[in-house]
Amino acid sequence: MPTLSRRRLLAASLAPLTLAKPLPSDAALSVIDFPAGFVWGASTSAYQIEGAVTADGRGKSIWDVFCHTPGRVENGDTGDIACDHYHRWRDDIALLSQGGFNAYRFSTAWPRIQPDGSGIVEPRGLDFYDRLVDGLIARGITPWLCLYHWDLPQALQEQGGWLKRDIAEKFADYARIVGRRLGDRVKHWAMLNEANIHAIFGHGLGQHAPALTGLPNMLAAMHHQNLAQALAMQALRAERSGLRLGTVVNVQPVRPSSGRDEDHRAAERFDAVWNGACLDPLMKGAYPAPVAQDFAPLIAAGDLATMRQPADYIGLNYYAPMWVADAPQSLFGAWFGSVPEGTPFTAMGWPIDAGGLAETLVRLRDRYGDPEIYLTENGACYDDELGPDGGVHDEDRVAYLRDHIEAAQRAVAAGVRLRGYFVWSLLDNFEWREGYRRRFGVVHIDFTTLKRTPKSSFAFLASLMRRR
User: Fold this and answer.
1) How far is it, in rounded angstroms, from Cα 313 to Cα 323?
2) Is 377 marked active-site?
3) Residue 1 covered by a domain
4) What pTM value is reported for the model?
5) DSSP 33-49
6) Considering 122, 268, 359, 377, which one is annotated as catalytic?
7) Mind listing the pLDDT tens digit for each residue in 83-112?
8) Residue of 50, 194, 268, 359 with catalytic role
9) Domain with 13 in it: what CATH number?
């Protein structure tokens, strides 16, 4: 084959990969369906909805400390009460059942189970998740458990947190504890939620807990999460057979903001950090070539072999494509650049492009050997308000969900082994540093009264699931 220029090589590495079958046109969607047994679920996370941060022996998390530090979160909001799911979980399970969801992805709070992150186990924390799992199963809803959604016990942070290698063994011990208690009923497990985002925004940019900054911290947090994930998988498999183990990563298409060589190089590096550094070690036993040397000082003998574990599935969180430009002064030399004119946005300021979801699903298929994939988060933030009739008519969100579900259909028709879709999120919740001003839920929460009101998007998904 002819020699390609560097720009063409970079463009080829970032462009959608060739499809085994062409994507069908929109006109063909009416005759395309998802495979039998397709999972329709909703997702949440512990700190964003549970509240009850001092109840039943729960220890502090890094997000408790972050939120109570002035200036960290919009309006000084905290997760102290959130949606009070800890006390209202029966109502929330009833909503899942009412909507026709057949799966629920939630996270367990490490500090609720081990207040100090290691050692003593708090039985009341495990009892809560026992009740939740039993309640889900009683309503015919399959529990999907994520072991870690960013709420590290503060006691571990004070010992170095994700910057220290020994946290990997502690995470494996935590996984073993949860697996021993719930593994007889919970069969679907995710080790980590978005280790890439947690490392970048919490350990590199300081915009999330634990508010650390700098490239060395970001790299260490990524590497040690990758190692912890592998040890947790080993621990769960040793504890109980028959579990289906995977992980959840935020993966987005990365596109150069211009045709300049430096923006193409920046996009390649950005893609390697954001999309590859927390999946390639698990699926390939290596870091992506553009950043392999960055991680080299952190890698001890045997790490890469350990990190490559059999994964039963990849959990994909997809929201938007990213346009990237050269940014020498940024965390890793590349950052968000200009977006094409006319691109629509959500209330978070995230660009909307459902086609990017099909592109990402195909790329995961081709890059990682046709894995089983679940779309573990997909949704949109809009400025929802109660209407005069007491309802929330979030038609923008309905359009977003419809377009992305259709994009998922096209990927399935092209041969991607997509096996499930989880909307983010079941409830409006505490949206990290944005506090309560940003709403992603298909159920509206009045954060004064905590009243739950299903939105038009909830009705749309319920209708879709009934038809399918």
Assistant:
1) 28
2) yes
3) no
4) 0.93
5) -PPTT-EEEEE--HHHH
6) 377
7) 999 999 999 999 999 999 999 999 999 999
8) 194
9) 3.20.20.80
